[in-house]
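P.,

For your records, the input lines for the assembly:
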Amino acid sequence: MNSLFYALPFVMVAVLIIMGLYTVLFKRNLIKMIMGVAIIQNGVNLFLVSLAYREGYVAPIWTSAPDVDMVLPTPHALTLTSIVIGVATTALMLSFVIMLKKHYGTTDSHETRRCKE
Amino acid sequence: MSLDLVNASPAFILGIPLLFAFLTPLADRISKELRDAVFMIGLLLTVLFVAVMSYEVFTAEGWAYVFGAEETGEITRFSFFRIMFVADGFAALATITVAITALGAGIYSFAFMEGQSGMEKFYTLFLLTLAGVNGMILTADLFNLFVWFEVTSIASCGLVAFINYKGKSVEAALKYMFISVIGGLFLLLSIGLLYGEYGILNYFAIAESVNGGVVDRVALSIILVVLAMKASSVPMHMWAPDVYTESPGAVTPFIAITSLGSLFVLFRILFVVFRYSVSTAALGGLLIILGLLSMFVGVSMALKQSDVKRLIAYLSVSQIGYMLLAVGVGFSTLENGDYATFGALALEGGFFHMINDGVYKALLFLSAAAIVYSTGTRNLNKLGGLAHRMPYTTMFFLIGGLSIAGIPPLSGFSSKLLIYKSIYLYHPILAIIALVVSIITFALIGKVFYNAFLGPDLGLSKGEVPTTMLLAMGILTAVVVVFSLFPNYVVAEIVVPAVEALGVTA
Amino acid sequence: MNWKMSRVVRTVTDVMVVPIIVFGIYLIIHGHLTPGGGFQGGAVVASSTALLIIAYGSFRDYKKDFSSVESIGLTLFIFLAILGILLGATLFYNFGAGTGGLFGGRVAEGINPGYINTGGTVPLMNIMVGLEVTAALSLILWMMAKSSDSMEVEA
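Structure tokens returned:
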């Protein structure tokens, strides 16, 4: 029972990634697809942060810290980098959707398919 | 602490494009000529440092470059916690391919993008993509690979959507962006799995402690699928025709270079990290299946195209199949003892085909873009008789086309001969399929050449393209000719060190 | 179409922009001691641009200035990294740690109340990245507001 409780973050990661993939695959509106990509980004960031956790340890900051051991700091650095990359990709994808709306007049992904097979 | 520029050349290959990418908008505020000069200086300095690093690797031995260390050239036990760049024969082969194609595409873009506004952003994105691909190839740290992977996908998507007065290029860029970003997120997931299992992110450190458990196999399959997606292998190739067709003409060989770069990275990860822990026969078999699918689907879809650039895009998908096939055969012989007979030959053929393909594919795409620049149409049903007004472009297209079809004495023939010889000894049916695909490729090149260039003069073209575009295509043609005339020299000096650097010796 | 908000909102915005920018600069400078650093502080300072665009509904054409500040920030960042090579060590070498001079104090071991004068190149790179992120995010917000016609561009 105890180990199931500590495995809960990883179950949430799986739920988030599946929800994000469902949104990208099955929704027609382009903005909703970008929101799905953001949900997958959040899921992967949660996975990286919950890899670092050890039971009973505190955040890895030396400034005025309590006198106990600290969790691993490397995945926190990886997560920060991933969040920054997520901001850049979301901004670029939203800019593409704005330009696409100007040229095609719609944000329906079934209508914006003019590159032929 | 001494200033050792040759030892620091991997860092300069990465750092010089990054620095000049952000100097270009500052130079643009002063004058346009200064911006063009700054871009050219950045490109030429990168090519210079690639040459310096390759010369040092081929004459002396390879080395590892550690970021943030105090002494250069000294590996302590702390070095595996820092970011490490590795400069060996494989990195030299890959960066030479990238540098030659980037030089050609960069010189071509001066005249092709004449009159476009916002050119300083084009040069920034171009140099950022170059830095990203070089970083992906040189790095020996898993998370650094993810960072350069994302930099490459963001910058190349920006380049694809650059000319946007119609909507199609933006649509192609959005499709590419969705697939690349989701692929990058899954790559980060697998890197997190490997970090959580082993606690360290360096390729060599993981290679010492990896076992063949479930976590390893999941991570390996995700990495394989994502990098093969970026390399446009079937069944993940759906972005490739749209992106190659709708991107501006000077940018298309650069997107092809990002595909080749991810293929180089995939092979490095397979050979360095996962070689001793998984069954190489099974993994090689998977690569062979992907290669066969890519070859066949690529060339079949190209048969019914009437758009020049889309046809060459499908041909490029099928050439990726050749590389996957050859390296798959070489990888699967590492276990069953046939390596000395034909496995080494398969690896040499595969790597030689990669550097050949980078150069002649760029040449084909640039000459197709010259057709578009000169006539304004891409439709093969409307073109005809361009050889009367554009003799140089005809010759360049002919050399590139004969090379991709594998006709002697051009360079494509040498690499394809090595591939046929080795995979025939693995299983004869593979060589027969590869030969049939090559014959169909030759037929397609003949069709394009006949439709576009031969025939009576229809008066479509405005004349020969500007001189800088001819200069860029001429540089690439000169490299193809050099590779054609001295193939054994090229294989012995450039390709064999790459095969040996991956740790495989007979 | 005039998108500006009421006088109360505009006055509160005028008052609140200064503490937001100061808090953002505090996050940037103290990045090597407490959670924060270049990106986080830069995002906070860029949110003041968002506040100004929304409250006033019009903004001057600072596109070239934002772009130049962004380029200057990143050029200095990479130049600081390459300076490590030119001083004889490797890329991104921390040549200010432990020596005298700017940000050159000795890092205290263990739990300490946080001395800002430590870290070497790390706070300098934080400042450069903060400059770049501020300018880049403000530019993105400006361009998106202009293209969705919810902001008019003053001369």
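Two observations worth noting. The interface with chain C takes residues 59, 61-65, 67, 80, 83-84, 87, 91, 94-95, 98, 102 of chain A (CB under 8 Å). The mean pLDDT of chain A is 90.

Regards
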